[in-house]
Amino acid sequence: MERDGNSARSLDCSPDDVKIVRARTIVPMLGEPVENGAVAIAGNQIADVGGFKEVRARHSGDVLDLGEQILLPGLINAHCHLDYTLLRGKIPPQKSFTGWIHAINASKAALSEADYVASIEAGLAESRKFGTTTLLNLEAFPELLPRQSQPPLRVWWCAEMIDVRKPVSAPEVSENLRDWLKSHPEWLGGFGVAPHAPFTASAQLFSAAFEISRKYHVPITTHVAESQEEMQMFRDASGPLYDFLKSIGRPMGDCGGNTPFSFLLQSQAPDEQWIVAHLNELTEGDFDLLARAKGFHIAHCPRSHTFFGHTPFELRKLRAMGFNICLGTDSLASNSSLSLFSEMRELLRKEPWISPQEVLTMVTVNAARAIGQGAWMGKIGPGFRADLIAIPSAETEGIAFDTIVAFDGVVPWMMLDGEISTLG
Predict the structure, then answer these.
(1) Residue 340 sits in the same domain as residue 407
(2) Edge-to-edge strand list for the sheet holding 75-80
């Protein structure tokens, strides 16, 4: 169950264990912004939040005054591929989605294991620079984790699996990843599973991943209905993606008469542990199915969506249906940075009817809920993890959400799991 309620609640703790962070404005995502606010922190948890005078009266710890800053929850990236950070700017927009697949496959073939390790570490550093404290990473090479330094963020490492060319043992891959993370408790976050997409992962692989997700109560994420060529493949049994996959030996007897989303539902029943990325190509029949398949979460990647020129994302319709929608950056093979601030601005550019506050919710509250951490992350309230960032405040009061979304730079201050780091 999610913790929610009044931003002035207090968690009982020893005064000696508490440190107080004061800022011009606190944006707790539990209510309205608090001017001249403060957060009391005990260990790695929020103990109290509210007006500075009130929090100071309840706690006797040392005070860190951030001055004219806005303090808010650390941002959460619900869909990224850190493996491809080194591919920034290497692949221009292609004439087709299948053309981009050919281009990224060629670029990946030129990367060594050392390149992938460097790519992941560069992606983590860049994400941190832009105020991301938690991310869900689709990791194609989980066996490389032992070669990496301890991540400076919370990461949910979702083993990305494809069996279109050769068999994959989902239990073996997942157990190895789980065992590694279990033996390294200093690595914040957890693990998950990511059968890549219905066109690259078999029904058997999806089912095996689903069982792992249920067994360990971990996220399962996949790409569905991303491109028009995916729709052509499943509905019409034709098109560039169909031809390419057929040429590399994928059995194509399951194509024809379905949409990508209806195809997924034939073998799976996505629940609250699922994060489905993209969902750009949806028919009216798909919306009828969606009305009966609620429970899973949706990850939208605004700038990657723009890069590909996909069919407009049905944000208004999906939101009205009650889906929990969060944002991700996708990979730098189809994006220019790992900044969630830039993703928020791009979404507002495309969907000016939505408020900055609602967009910020997509990279805090909604994203925390999607990865199964809604009771611990994405808000500033008693019992929540002390994952915080601060950015410069505007001179005018009452526009905190506009200021946050407009921020374009290196986040100067961050706290992760109760530990402070200066970034800029």
Answers:
(1) no
(2) 75-80, 132-139, 154-161, 189-195, 220-224, 274-278, 297-300, 324-327
pLDDT tens-digit readout, 365-378: 999 999 999 999 99
Angle at alpha carbon of residue 267, lines to 275 and 262, rounded to 5°? 70
Residue 26 and residue 33 in contact, taking contact as beta carbons nearer than 8 Å: yes
Q: Which two tokens stand for residue 294?
A: 């609620």
Can you give the CATH number for the domain in which 191 is found? 3.20.20.140
Residues of the chain with pLDDT > 70, as a percent, come to: 95
DSSP H helices in 130-224? 170-182, 203-216
Same domain? For 342 and 246 the reply is yes
Residue 408: exposed, middle, or buried by beta-carbon count in 10 A (0-12, 13-18, 19+)? Answer: exposed
Asked whether the beta carbons of 213 and 194 are under 8 A apart, the reply is no
- Give how far Cα 301 sits from Cα of 95, 125, 346, Å: 20, 20, 9
Spatial separation of the C-alpha atoms in residues 212 and 141, rounded to whole Å:
18
Percent of the chain at pLDDT above 90? 91
- Shared domain check, 263 and 394: no
Q: Does a structural domain hold residue 4? A: no
Residue 3 lies in a domain: no
Q: Are residues 165 and 202 in the same domain?
A: yes
Q: Which residues are CB-contacts of 183 (< 8 A; sequence separation ≥ 6)?
A: none
| H or E stretch covering 135 | strand 132-139
Domain count, the chain: 2
Specify whether 120 is located in the same domain as 263: yes
pLDDT at 229 over 60: yes
CB 64 within 8 A of CB 390: no
**In the block, residue with structure tokens 């692949």:** 91
Specify whether 332 is located in the same domain as 322. Answer: yes
DSSP-assigned states of every residue in 287-311:
HHHHHHSBTBEEEE-HHHHHHHTPS
CA-closest candidate to residue 264, choices 322, 328, 173, 200: 200
Domain of residue 407 covers 15-74+379-422
Q: Residue 424: pLDDT above 90?
A: no
In single-letter form, the type of residue at position 88 comes to: R
Residues 137 and 155 placed together within one structural domain of the fold: yes
Nearest alpha carbon to residue 52 among 18, 19, 15, 23: 23
Let me know if residue 9 belongs to a domain. no
Is the residue at 7 inside a domain?
A: no
